[in-house]
Amino acid sequence: MLARQYNDQLAHEIAQLRSEAERVRDRYRKTRDNRAKLVAKRNEVRRRKAEMEQAYTEFNDEYREKLEVIKEKKQAGGNPNELTELKKKSVA
After folding, report:
1. For residues 86 and 55, what is the distance between their CA atoms, to the nearest angstrom?
2. Those residues with Cβ within 8 angstroms of residue 73's Cβ, 6 or more apart along the chain or in another chain
3. Residues of the chain scoring pLDDT < 70
4. pTM of the shown model
5. CA–CA distance from 59 to each of 13, 40, 42, 45, 63 (Å)?
6. What is residue 81's predicted lDDT score, i.e. its pLDDT?
7. pLDDT at residue 87, rounded to an integer
8. What is the span of the domain harbouring residue 81?
9. What confidence score (pLDDT) does residue 70 get?
């Protein structure tokens, strides 16, 4: 009779361990999936940041070129309000 009780107890413990192992495996899969989603999101944010930095650099270069042209025109006797208008447009 003792052997039977011992076997039943072991069977019960094995079932508990299997159940716990399934819970741990599920939690691991969810964590892994969440991590993959976070990595994808991080990569998307980095890509968008790089695009924004590129657009900003292009805008800034164009703005500086326009300022330089306007300054040259002003020195040559051009419209003095052109610089003010360009600054207003860039802020808007």
Report:
1. 18
2. 79, 82
3. 78-92
4. 0.54
5. 68, 29, 25, 21, 6
6. 65
7. 63
8. 2-91
9. 82
